[in-house]
Amino acid sequence: MPFEPGKTVRFPAGTCAACPLRARCTTSSHGRSVSIHPDEALLTGLRQRQQTTEGREELRERVQVEHALAHIGHWQGRRARYLGTRKNLFDLRRVAVVHNLHIIARQAATDSYQLAA
């Protein structure tokens, strides 16, 4: 079936009934419908880039950043603690400093030197 990005492709019930793969595809008596993302070509290109050496290196770097942000979000919580942007920005920075201190302490434990107490 021809399709356009951002649209839904609908397969008629008669076409689906004659298909040998129907049992693995759909259980609908009205046929199958597939939604195509508007940026499908871009997403396909990004998936292919992830399979290259450079793409894997970028993905590893991204995972480190996302893990750090997840730790900060876990410690800080999902909701703002204070009223006002200024106080919440201070709280975010406070939690980021605590996270960085945890990272430093973990590295110091694996290295041959100790932090001064």
Could you walk me through the main structural features you see in this protein, from its secondary elements to its overall organization?
It contains 5 helices and 2 strands, in the order E-H-H-E-H-H-H. With 117 residues, the chain is mainly alpha-helical. A two-stranded antiparallel ribbon has the order 1-2. The longest helix has 26 residues, at 85-110. It is elongated. The model has no long low-confidence stretch (mean pLDDT 86).
- Overall geometry comes to elongated
Q: How confident overall, as mean pLDDT?
A: 86
| Biggest sheet layout | 2 strands, antiparallel
Tally the helices. 5
**Got a strand count?**
2
Q: Assign the structural class, choosing from mainly alpha, mainly beta, alpha/beta, alpha+beta, or little secondary structure.
A: mainly alpha
